[in-house]
Amino acid sequence: MIGELKHRIKLEQLLVEKDSLEQEIETWQLAYEVWADIKPLSGKEYFKARQTKSDIMVQVTIRYRPQIYNHMRMLFNNQIYEIVSVINVNQENRYLQLLCKEGVELV
């Protein structure tokens, strides 16, 4: 498994702060930069508002980290991925599998 962790990814968490007018400001902060194995799971296309949209799901395997949650996001190859679920493989605290849905492209 260790040799398969060949992709460098970033995991970010959402921070909500208040400005001087007490308005909430959301920013993403880097939580981890780790090595990962990324495998595409499925791709489905459908028509919505006369546009073709593609949902791409990937399975990402990383070494175990205790504070990774499904409200975080992953960055890889100028793409943002929403973390849909986090699975502790065999409950051994060795690896995590992240099921991620492709989002918008970074500019």
From TrEMBL:
The keyword Coiled coil applies. It comes from the Bacteria. Gene3D superfamilies: Bacteriophage SPP1 head-tail adaptor protein. Keywords: Coiled coil. Signal peptide: none annotated. Pfam families: Phage_HCP. Residues 4-31 form a coiled coil. This is Phage head closure protein.
